[in-house]
Design brief:
The chain is an all-alpha fold and about 300 residues long. The protein has one domain. The longest helix has 28 residues. The chain is globular and about 55 Å long.
């Protein structure tokens, strides 16, 4: 059996007359074209996801199992920092922080992979015409597979130490994950296009993501943000507007508090994410014809 060649698959998927310029197309037309590119290239996206997972598995000793090991190691670091050194933590803190680490790892790794996805395909882009928007989208779907792997240590942790937290609410994790996927898709698609023209985006994003994590209620509860309302109202409004304040709280409700998610917050975030996806696709399709020249 011959090894998979993304360029061969892209050639098979490429339309007969690929549009070389988007200058004369309207915004709605570009967004519609981007959505059509995504829906009509499902097979190409699937192959790119498989290639990405295979590459990651071959590049490290533990391969894709790292998705199981890494969040547990991160959990151990934060438990030692917050519970042992700072002596400030919630009850059952390992599960409390793990419920935030897992979705954050999904988001941060997906964004980082998507940022470099177009630049990494430089040779492919210069050789043939195909809708480049499938490149960041493949990184996003690969991240979903990684997140699914990460649910294994979550279940193991709960079965071993927190059986009292097991409930049917856990079945709603995919609902929260869908909202996170929509938000991640918007961020990743936009940044992947910007990085083609400004290569420092990848370096800057690492620091921004680190700051974003600490400004999110990951190591502390959302109720702790309330204490900032009077003393630091600017920080309070920034932190409450953070999408991960909604996402982390919803994941924690299902996993840690054994109650329902923040339905109102999730609904609002889903609507905002859909609008952002449209804007991200518009940006991507607008600058896509220049990729081959810049790369």
């Amino acid at each position: 059996m011959l090894p998979f060649d993304p360029s061969m698959e892209a050639r098979a998927e490429a339309p007969g007359a690929f549009r070389s310029s988007a200058a004369h197309q309207g915004a709605i037309s570009l967004v519609r074209e981007g959505i059509t590119d995504i829906l009509s290239r499902r097979r190409l996206i699937r192959y790119l996801v498989q290639a990405d997972l295979k590459k990651k598995g071959a590049d490290t000793l533990f391969g894709n199992i790292w998705w199981i090991i890494d969040p547990l190691l991160q959990m151990a670091v934060y438990v030692v920092l917050v519970s042992v050194i700072l002596k400030r933590s919630e009850p059952d803190y390992p599960l409390f922080v793990f419920a935030a680490i897992l979705p954050w790892k999904w988001f941060s790794s997906t964004v980082q992979d998507a940022i470099s996805s177009v630049v990494a395909a430089e040779r492919l882009i210069k050789q043939i015409h195909f809708p480049k928007i499938v490149l960041p989208l493949a990184s996003e779907f690969a991240g979903v597979v990684g997140f699914a792997f990460g649910l294994i240590p979550l279940v193991g942790l709960m079965l071993a130490f927190y059986r009292d937290k097991l409930s049917l609410w856990l079945l709603l994790i995919p609902v929260v994950a869908v909202v996170q996927f929509l938000f991640t898709m918007a961020v990743a698609t936009a940044l992947s296009a910007i990085n083609v023209f400004f290569r420092d985006v990848g370096n800057v994003s690492r620091h921004v993501l680190r700051l974003w994590f600490y400004l999110s209620p990951a190591l502390y509860s959302t109720s702790a943000i309330e204490s900032l309302r009077k003393d630091n109202p600017i920080a309070f409004h920034i932190m409450t507007a953070n999408p991960f304040a909604i996402l982390f709280e919803s994941y924690r409700n299902l996993i840690y508090y054994t109650t329902g998610p923040d339905w109102q917050g999730l609904g609002f975030l889903a609507l905002v994410s859909i609008v952002l996806i449209g804007l991200a696709i518009l940006l991507f399709k607008r600058v896509e014809p220049s990729f081959a020249k810049v790369l």
